[in-house]
Structure formats: structure tokens, C-alpha cells
């Protein structure tokens, strides 16, 4: 039995707002069209849909995600992520090719920044051998968004962060001029600074990071010191 997403898609279509859609597309640099549904309303629609129709079974996850991802409007991609985040405890190593496909398909920071820490991160934490198979190739990939995902998957690890891995990944990309890589490095350092402030402070001062990465990485430490 297939997982029917049509009720959700009809709900989105009924909620479209052209004024919001134009503003949301502009904010995303016109990368994608939008229905114009703001986040709280979209999440409520997804919640209502799940309440009525349930979540996809394990063998329905991939087709459900790809069905939503195939829709041009960005809210459908967000809905796919809403489903995956609710299912993250059911995700296993067999879903990593799907997550990798999502990172490299219709890529932008808004989806990658959810997939990496909220979907890939828990999988890598449960099975660290997957880091060798996936994150290691990602961090040296020519694909910008795979590298960003490798930098960000530990974002929520706190004391469980593999510090040596994080710092090695940062140094492998420290000379990048890509805005989204420089920002990812700064973000990863800023988050880990909340767990290991002295270590992060030393790392930033001892290594030649790009000014943007350094500035972003020091934000929390600078606020803490005032």
C-alpha cells in the first residue's frame, strides 16, 4: 500500500499566498518557487496530515521523500524534512544514500542545515563506521553542500563531539573562499565553543582561518567574556 501525500499537497495548494511566496523566494535568492506558507502554518498542516494519515512505514520513506522532493515548491521539500525528523530514530544506514541524494539535489542552506545535524548526525552517532564511508568522502568532495554537511553533522553532539575529527575537517576546508563553507566552519566552532570554550578559543587563535570563519566562531566566546 502506498503512502498517499495528495491530501497534504492539496492542503498546501489551498493555503498559497502570492505575496508571501514572492517574499520567501526573494529571501532564498530566487532559488525555488514557494506556495507562500509560513513555517508555523506549514508545520501545523504537516502535523494535521500526520494525525489523520500517520507516518510512512520504513519501506515507504524513500518514495515519500522523493515524491515531495520532486515538487517544485520549497514547502514540499520542508515537509519531507518534517517527516524525516519525526522518523529519525527509524532511519538506518540504508537511508544514507537517500540523505546524500537530498543534500546534492535542489541544494541550498535551508535544507542541508537540517539534513546534516538532524538526520545524518544521529545516524553517524549510532554507527560511527558510517563516518568513514560517507563523511570522509564528503569533506573533500567537489560538491559544496556535501562539504558543508560534513562540517555540520556534529552540530548537536555537544560533549560527544569528536573534536579531532571536527578540527581536521575544518582545516581541510580552512582555505576555502566559498561563503557557505566559511560560515559552516564558524557555526561549527561557535556551537562547540559552548561545550569546550578554551579548546575552541585556542584552535581559532592558533590556525589561519578565514576572517568570516574566525568572526563567526568567536561570537559566543566574545559574548560570554563581556
Can you offer a commentary on this structure?
With 226 residues, the chain is mainly α. It has two domains: 90 residues, Leucine-rich Repeat Variant; 116 residues, Leucine-rich Repeat Variant. The chain has 13 helices and no strands. Helix 4 runs antiparallel to helix 5, helix 6 runs antiparallel to helix 7 and helix 11 runs antiparallel to helix 12. The model has no long low-confidence stretch (mean pLDDT 97). InterPro entries: ARM-type_fold (IPR016024), DNA_alkylation (IPR014825).
CATH topology of the largest domain, which one?
Answer: Leucine-rich Repeat Variant
The profile of the biggest β sheet is:
none
List the domain count as a whole number: 2
Q: How helical, in percent, are the residues?
A: 55-70%
CA gyration radius, whole angstroms: 19 Å
Q: Report how far the terminal alpha carbons are from each other.
A: 59 Å
**What order do the SSEs take from the amino end to the carboxyl end, as H and E?**
HHHHHHHHHHHHH
Question: What's the assembly state of these chains?
Answer: single chain
Organism: Sporolactobacillus terrae
Protein name: DNA alkylation repair protein
InterPro entries: ARM-type_fold, DNA_alkylation
Features:
ARM-type_fold, Leucine-rich Repeat Variant, DNA_alkylation, 2 domains, 13 helices, 226 residues
Amino acid at each position: 500500500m502506498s503512502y498517499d501525500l495528495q491530501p497534504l499537497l492539496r492542503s498546501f495548494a489551498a493555503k498559497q499566498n502570492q505575496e508571501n511566496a514572492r517574499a520567501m523566494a526573494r529571501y532564498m535568492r530566487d532559488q525555488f518557487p514557494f506556495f507562500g506558507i509560513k513555517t508555523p502554518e506549514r508545520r501545523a498542516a504537516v502535523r494535521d496530515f500526520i494525525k489523520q494519515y500517520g507516518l510512512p512505514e520504513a519501506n515507504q520513506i524513500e518514495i515519500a521523500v522523493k515524491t515531495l522532493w520532486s515538487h517544485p515548491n520549497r514547502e514540499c521539500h520542508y515537509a519531507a524534512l518534517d517527516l524525516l525528523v519525526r522518523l529519525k530514530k527509524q532511519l538506518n544506514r540504508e537511508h544514507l544514500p537517500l540523505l546524500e541524494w537530498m543534500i546534492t539535489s535542489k541544494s541550498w542552506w535551508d535544507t542541508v542545515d537540517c539534513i546534516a545535524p538532524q538526520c545524518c548526525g544521529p545516524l553517524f552517532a549510532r554507527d560511527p563506521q558510517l563516518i568513514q564511508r560517507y563523511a570522509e568522502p564528503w569533506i573533500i568532495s567537489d560538491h559544496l553542500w556535501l562539504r558543508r554537511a560534513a562540517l555540520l553533522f556534529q552540530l548537536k553532539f555537544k560533549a560527544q563531539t569528536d573534536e579531532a575529527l571536527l578540527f581536521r575537517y575544518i582545516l581541510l576546508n580552512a582555505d576555502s573562499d566559498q561563503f557557505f563553507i566559511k560560515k559552516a566552519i564558524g557555526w561549527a566552532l561557535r556551537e562547540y565553543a559552548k561545550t569546550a570554550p578554551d579548546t575552541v578559543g585556542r584552535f581559532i587563535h592558533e590556525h589561519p582561518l578565514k576572517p568570516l570563519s574566525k568572526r563567526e566562531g568567536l561570537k559566543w566566546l566574545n559574548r560570554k567574556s563581556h
